[in-house]
Write a structure and sequence with these properties.
Chain lengths: 34, 233
């Protein structure tokens, strides 16, 4: 997993999934508060 | 609390998949780099699945004209674009150490996947081109049904045309992988499917709230407009 290409692939994949999940949760909360 | 079951299940399976992917022995030919397989192939699969769901929901919208089918189609397409992008990125990162290049337009699967990515980006752009919900749903349903023809073309491109990509790893007549690698792959595939479902549920919820918020804003705007007064004089 320490091989740079592998590391970047995994970080990018999990990062995008986490980032999109946070976007969904925060946007939903913001609209609910209105 | 019930809303948390699917995301927690998806996160747990994803963590298990990561652990299995990192604990399998390195590939005999590609070494450590072959571990990219466990995120690259499930990402591609989710892209295919998401665009398939978009097409099916588009057909359902055409038949039923219900807003919920349009919501499902749009939400699934957005997630599909996200995973196509990931498949392209991880594929390029895998290609550099193995093929010696990040990208080759001569490779049928690379080119067709890039085309599919841009077509579905266009689908998302088309949805923003109008504020009329019926026109938006109709136009995007037509594109959603037409664009899905790319999915089998991308999948079978490695068989139809000579390319850098290998042919399918898992075929009906068997798999060209060891047992441990298959187990890790199947767990990751399951994890990505659960992640897709969790994201889809969340995106549909957000789309519904956005529609309700827009409808409430329009109602409010309409209330401010009063009928012209007829002056008796």
């Amino acid at each position: 997993m320490t091989e740079p290409f592998v590391l970047i692939s995994y970080l990018a994949t999990y990062g995008v999934i986490a980032g999109y999940s946070i976007y969904l949760v925060r946007s939903t909360r913001r609209l609910r508060r209105r | 609390m019930r809303r948390l079951i699917l995301p927690v299940l998806a996160a747990t399976t994803l963590a298990t998949g990561l652990w299995l992917a990192s604990s399998t022995p390195p590939d005999a030919f590609q070494g450590e780099v072959a571990r990219i397989f466990h995120v690259h192939v499930p990402s591609s699969w989710i892209a295919f699945l998401a665009f398939g769901v978009t097409a099916a929901a588009s057909v359902m919208w055409m038949i039923r004209k219900r807003q919920r089918w349009d919501r499902l189609a749009a939400s699934s397409a957005e997630i599909g674009v996200l995973f196509t992008g990931l498949a392209l990125l991880t594929g390029s990162l895998w290609g550099k150490p193995i093929w010696g290049t990040y990208w080759d337009w001569g490779d049928a699967r690379l080119a067709s996947t890039a085309l599919m990515f841009f077509v579905y980006l266009g689908y998302l752009a088309l949805r923003r081109a109008t504020t009329d919900p019926i026109a938006r749903a109709r136009r995007s349903a037509i594109l959603g049904m037409v664009a899905v023809v790319q999915v089998p073309l991308v999948y079978f491109s490695v068989n139809l045309l000579r390319s850098l990509h290998q042919t399918q790893t898992i075929r009906p007549d068997g798999a060209s992988m060891g047992g441990e690698m298959i187990r890790a792959f199947l767990v990751n595939l399951l994890a990505f499917n659960l992640v897709y479902l969790a994201l889809l549920v969340g995106r549909i919820r957000l789309a519904r709230l956005t529609e309700e918020s827009e409808a409430a804003a329009q109602e409010h705007a309409g209330a401010a407009v009063s009928a012209p007064r007829l002056d008796p004089a």
